Amino acid sequence: MTPARPAPEFKAPDFTALLSDRARRMSASAIREILKITQQPDIISFAGGLPAPELFPVEDVRRATDNVLTKYGPAALQYSTTEGHPPLRQWIGSRAGIPAANVQIVTGSQQALDLLGKILISEGDTVLVEAPTYLGALQSFQPYGPNYVQMPTDDGGIDLDALEKILKTTPAKLLYAVPNFQNPTGRTLNAERRRRLVELTGQYGVLVIEDDPYGQLRFTGEAAPSLYELGLEYAGDVDSSHIIYCSSFSKTLVPGLRDAWVQAAAPIISKLVQAKQGADLHTPTLNQMIVTELLDDVLPRQIETVKKAYGERAGIMLGHIKQQFPGGVEYTTPEGGMFLWVTLPQGLDSTQMLVRALTRNVAYVPGSPFFALGGGENTLRLSYSSATPEQIETGIKALGETIREAMD
Ligand code: N5F
């Protein structure tokens, strides 16, 4: 089609000037940007938090899809309720020991973060985040104009003495944390600190978002109770709890179905429903039915398969790191999940170093985008979930050489 000639007085809109304040606060995800580069076949990528695709239960999903279409017919392809597929909510609720009414299905836990930001964060509200924290959460919260305060962390997770000091002087609305095998550090908040965090935030009237996509993927050590479980004990009742729990089938089953959920008190759930109506009406009906079909036998089996593979891959990566990385480089030892965190000697810049790493065909995510208020230039995140043992060996060797070169 030949474009019509614009009227002489027409000027293309100044799109940038027309953007909302909210849109102006948005920025691109460093992970998604790097994923574009790492799709080149010769790059060994430790960048994306991508589950291992060769482990996906493709045949089980095929069978479940067929069963669901037979069982539900056109209803599997129809619009459905915003709250989610009732049997899926019931299963999640019964496992958590709460009514299905306190469960909201969402389109990826990423959507939960966006919708929770939308319903809870007014411009200027103080939001406490770990330093570092999941950058996708920052990306979701940012448009709503939070005032971030960073909580210092160490190998046991959030430093609770530091948190108490912050709470004494700063009226905070919300605390966001990833207590299990945190993205990006792989660290876990220890059991004692969990109790204290629930009590402190309870006392100071702070709502907590507990983001837990990796909790089921523990390959070593002992599980600690979730903040949500402790919050139920502390509050004594599901509709008074100040903890909002998010989890997902992305890392335990498959990410492409985009099925995840929120457990929370009724007033939070009912606002989430309204926010979700405006966002996407509901999570795809067929996808929810497929996941439901897989809950009883495929999901537990898949969790075992994935845990075993990631445990092996983490071990292999740590072994090569030990051999290949020069002295002065520190790294975490995760007990589950998909990530470990590397701290280079002070003065090195992992963003600049990425260019050199890419010339050696290896990629990672630089650490600084994981800090709400900046910092962490000498840190980086490595994911071991989707690389083969051979790729891990080659990639870590290349990264070790890159670090040495940068240190010289
Ligand atoms: O449930 P889903 O798939 O939307 O997962 C979002 C999510 C929520 N919270 C935490 C702590 C997470 O780590 C994630 C997923 N993070 C991956 C990552 O690499 O950091 C997703 C990256 C995949 C991508 O952007 O393509």
Write down the CATH topology of the largest domain. Answer: Aspartate Aminotransferase, domain 2
Assembly type of the shown chains? single chain
List the ions, cofactors and other small molecules found in this model. Answer: ligand N5F
Order of strands side by side in the largest beta sheet? 2-9-8-7-6-3-4-5
Supply Rg: 22 Å
Total strand segments = 14
Please report the number of helical segments.
15
- Overall number of structural domains: 2
Mean pLDDT: 96
Globally, the shape reads globular
CATH class of the largest domain: Alpha Beta
- In percent terms, what proportion of residues is strand? 5-15%
Task: Provide the CATH superfamily of the largest domain.
Answer: Type I PLP-dependent aspartate aminotransferase-like (Major domain)
Structural class: alpha/beta
Tell me the CATH architecture of the largest domain: 3-Layer(aba) Sandwich
Question: Distance between the terminal alpha carbons, to the nearest Å?
Answer: 58 Å
What does this structure look like?
- The protein has 408 residues and is α/β, with parallel strands linked by helices.
- The protein has 2 domains: 22-57 and 300-407, Aspartate Aminotransferase, domain 1, CATH 3.90.1150.10; 78-294, Type I PLP-dependent aspartate aminotransferase-like (Major domain) (Aspartate Aminotransferase, domain 2).
- It is built from 15 helices and 14 strands.
- The chain has an 8-stranded mixed sheet with strand order 2-9-8-7-6-3-4-5, with helices on both faces.
- Strand 10 (330-331) and strand 11 (339-343) form a beta hairpin.
- Helix 8 (160-169) packs parallel to helix 9 (191-203) and helix 9 packs across helix 10 (227-235).
- The longest helix is centred in the C-terminal third of the chain and has 27 residues, at 298-324.
- The model has no long low-confidence stretch (mean pLDDT 96).
- Bound molecules: ligand N5F.
